[in-house]
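Before going further, learn to read the protein records used in this course. The integers have meaning only within a learned vocabulary of local backbone shapes. The record below shows the convention in full.
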Amino acid sequence: MQKKPITNKLLWIFAIGQFGWSLLSGIVSNWMVYYYTGSPNAQNPNTGIFASGITQDPILFKLTLFGVVLAVGRVFDAITDPLIAGWSDRAKFKGGRRIPFMKAIAVPFALVTIGLFTLPQTASIQVNDTILFVLLITFYLFMTIYCTPYNALIAELGDTQEHRINVSTYISFTYIAGLSISYMLPNVAGMFQGSLGQAGSIRMAVAVMSTLACIAMLTPSLYIKERDYLEAKPSETKAFSSLLKTFQNGMFRRFVYSDVIYFFSLTLFQTGLAFYETKLMKIEDTWTFLLTATMTALSVLQYPIVNRLAPKIGKKRMIIFGFFCYSAVFLITFLCGEGLVWGFIVAVVASVPMAILGILPQACVADVAELSRLETGEDRSGMFFAARTFAFKMGQAIALAVFTSMTVSGTEGSYRATAAVAFAACFIGACLFFLYKEKMILEKINKLKGSEQ
């Protein structure tokens, strides 16, 4: 039976799901450390508002409990990626290989996000530590169950080079939109503070945002009938055998080298952003959304430019340029002084690499997955994206442990040091990406597709 054609409208509907999970991810990555560590002051009274409920002192060398929990959660998340990817690649559900996972996990994913800011509030610190650990592990598991099949659809719905770049552009837009709205948490909490108090208003803001995220995540799974558009032929390769095959792909490894370093740098920066603004630039945390919105708006304005330039000058060159731009952002943060102007300088400069690196890396993975399918006859798109997330989540786990360890003193110098580490790592990542051979990959895809016709 002839499959329905894939349209840009369908790709936009698909992209709404990215808004949902990026909003949940942003809530946790941007605000968990902020509310569970540190200490309040007159300018930002909500900093560390839940800190008294969990262990704060270092428990191993300079590693704090919170740093260990976050790092272990990301490692667990990385390990489960190939398992879920293998399960999804081999799935034979009536609704397809990907959509059934997304539909089943959206509601539990949103609920556990709410629980992270609500449940670790008993009178016992030890019990709170345990609850926080279990919930965070569950959060990362549910994110994997949603995101791994979702990411596989990037390659499968991107049936042409144009569609691969388009879908990468659309999901980049919705990703940034979700991440940006997550920075509104203090602003939304302020709407409820009069009736619920400081802690209660934060929990209510998380609940409101999580409900919005849940609706967004359900949208593509309820609208897109996977088997109407895709063959969805199950893979026969087991999970870790498929993962090994993926990392044996030379071009994929060259891509991953720089990608994992990039996410290490970016995670350091994102985790510290609220601290950079409040501790170094002396900005109130309610300005965080406006600064992020400025960065997002400028970045979105550059999307059409990135979309048009990528086929002409190549994704590789643009990604390398994006790496060097982010290095500049981290260096500016390291050198910044006090005042709102520094926040806007960072927002403006960061908008350039945000546009480039938010779109093009996914398209690179889709290219490599497509070439592998054409060369081997086996569609393992889920595993290629899972292998990428496996690698960069390891980088994120290290970054979370490094950040919480480096900033245990809470001094301005400790936060500047994390920006310096991010700068050095991102610069190295830019240099490593010169090893990726995009031109060769695209030439082989065109040649093999030509022989199929």
Observations:
- The CA atoms of residues 280 and 412 lie 6 Å apart.
- The first strand starts at residue 58 and ends at 60.
- The chain has a mean pLDDT of 85.
- The chain has 16 helices and two strands.
